[in-house]
Inverse folding.
């Protein structure tokens, strides 16, 4: 079980790294006014989303559900896990919305400013803080 937990944490760290960096690339991409720069951001965003962030999300979910499978009735009876799973569901939605934005930038159809993406970039931080507190403190 400890190995599964270790791999769950490693995958989660990689997933969050991607979710922190991808919107930051959107900030720079939205502010870029030269075609070579925009083309470079398109490649970076696609590779980060497909090559690191999405596989890390899948691994995080697999290892997380694997951990729950060791004692499903015990874990699923705890309120903190319900809250954590709800936040993970929101994060999965955020992840797929980032994938949508990768496509929007790929097609040169972005309509938002870099300021929007600066705010958008902060959302996973709030989820991370809440998830770590829930998993560590188990307040309810």
């Amino acid at each position: 079980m400890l190995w599964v937990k270790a791999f769950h944490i490693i995958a989660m760290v990689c997933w969050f790294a991607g979710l922190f960096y991808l919107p930051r690339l959107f900030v720079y991409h939205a502010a870029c006014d030269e075609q070579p720069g925009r083309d470079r951001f398109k490649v970076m965003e696609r590779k980060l989303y497909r090559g690191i962030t999405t596989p890390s999300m899948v691994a995080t979910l697999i290892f997380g559900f694997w951990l729950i499978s060791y004692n499903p009735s015990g874990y699923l009876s705890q309120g903190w896990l319900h809250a954590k799973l709800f936040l993970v569901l929101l994060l999965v939605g955020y992840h797929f919305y980032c994938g949508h934005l990768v496509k929007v930038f790929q097609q040169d159809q972005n309509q938002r400013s870099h300021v929007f993406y600066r705010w958008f970039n902060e959302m996973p931080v709030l989820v991370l803080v809440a998830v770590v507190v829930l998993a560590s403190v188990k307040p309810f």
